[in-house]
Amino acid sequence: MEFIFELTKYNEVSFKSQVSKTLEKRTELVSRKEHPRLWSFTDKMNSKEKGSGEVLEKRRGRYMIYGVLLFFMGVFLLVTSLMSPEELKIPLIVGSLSVGIGIAYINRGRKPKIKKLTAFDRAAAKLFNEYENLPAHKVTFANENIRLEENAAISYEEIEKFFITTDFFILIWNHRITILQKKDLASHDVADFVSFISKKSQDLFEVVDII
């Protein structure tokens, strides 16, 4: 049985986002293996319940309201107490604290900044540029090996990780990467191919589903 991918043009948006996520996941898996205790602590911290988007939005709204009220109350107390600082020490202190706490609440109430490009995003963009210039060819998964080109093939033992994303199959092998679109599978269907790869992976490599 052979599974043949006839490579076609890649979609830039899905390629960059899903490949970036895969590269990040691969780095995490390597790190988890090397630093299990650190990741155990991290997982405990992340397991704490997080609010939904709606809950977080309401929470930010409350923070903003509290922050503005505290800030202006603090400014009022400061202005008033500065007229007689010796006699109004307590309002001066309370006013200073109110301004500080108000600013802190306002900062917490602001919407998070737009996510900056990560090293994984940049690596995915670089890979996309390389894949755009690849000549059209086929990739064949046979029982004995994987034929990447007419005269190039790798064995299943060379695969380190096999990632499955929403639109792609991504192989990490010998510190190299091969990215295949599910829609380019010309023979059989995706479910049959996943079953085939799962059988081939036993004791050889890890199949990671990150859909």
Which structural traits does this protein have?
2 domains; elongated; 8 strands; alpha+beta; four-stranded antiparallel beta sheet; four-stranded mixed beta sheet
Descriptive report:
Strand 5 (159-164) and strand 6 (168-173) form a beta hairpin. The chain has helices spanning 12-34, 36-46, 53-82, 89-109, 119-132, 190-201; strands at residues 3-6, 138-141, 146-149, 152-154, 159-164, 168-173, 176-181, 206-209. The chain has two domains: 3-33 and 117-209; 54-109. It is an alpha+beta fold. The relative contact order is 0.18. Helix 1 (12-34) packs across helix 2, helix 1 crosses helix 5 and helix 3 runs antiparallel to helix 4. The strands form two sheets. Strands 1-2-3-4 form a four-stranded antiparallel beta sheet, with no helix packed on it. It has a four-stranded mixed beta sheet with strand order 7-6-5-8, with helices on both faces. The mean pLDDT is 87. The protein starts with a strand and ends with a strand. It is 53% helix and 18% strand.
